[in-house]
Amino acid sequence: MSQPPRFFILVPVLNEAGNLPRLSQSLAALHREFIDRFDLQVIFVDDGSVDNTSGLAKQAAEQAGFPLYVLQHERNLGPGKAFQTGFSHLFSLLQDNDLVLTIEGDNTSRLELVKQMLTRMAEGYDVIFASPYMYGGQIVNTSTFRVFLSAVANLFVKEMLGLHGLLTVSSFFRLYRAKALKTLQRHYGPGIIERAGFECMVEMAMKMVFCGLSISEVPMVLDTKARVGKSRMKIARTIRGYLTLWFHKRAWKRQAQEGR
Length: 260
Description:
CATH topology: Spore Coat Polysaccharide Biosynthesis Protein SpsA, Chain A
Low-confidence stretches: none
Shape: globular
Distance between the termini: 36 Å
Structural class: alpha/beta
Helix content: 40-55%
Number of domains: 1
Order of helices and strands: EHEHEHEHEEHEHHEEH
Strand order of the largest sheet: 3-2-1-4-7-5-8
Largest sheet: 7 strands, mixed
CATH superfamily: Spore Coat Polysaccharide Biosynthesis Protein SpsA, Chain A
Mean pLDDT: 90
């Protein structure tokens, strides 16, 4: 009897002790839902937490009944470095029929959308994004100013970097075919990502486009009320990070073309 494909869930975390109870419940529910379809494996990348996130996460996973592996940074390096560590860990593990889901560690990724993302992937796409900007999606329980700023920044980044046709380019909540990640790793190295800040997801979207991967989206309601604590994204720092991506655009595009 053949083994079911593995479904890796990669989660960067930083001081998420308050979010762990709800997050663990959501992961356990997903594990139960797909237990006959996938070998589900959860990987936390603890990016220098000081609130015992790793220890509490292991306890919560044991109690909730889902497998958890924790990768640890001794100090905070940024979300891009956390994803880099996670993708590098997966480099030697991934087989072509595996899937990888990346999510936020603060409960703002709605895991009930995974079934819809899988349906969309079955249509043949390489990567599926969850988008609050798509028809049917929205951002709720957030100040009007922050929603406006997010929308303007999203539009500006797409126009500046040429990411036309995508409605969101910065969300962590994505579903990848293993083949897509292996393509990115072949061109850009096991960790795929170079940037350390929140602009890392835009970097990755650029590299996917340069490699010719097919991307689709599903609508998501982003409810910041689901989060315990404040967002760790610093607006000014993130905008500066977005601007620096323009200087890497030509080199990243060349790397993709040279590997074809």
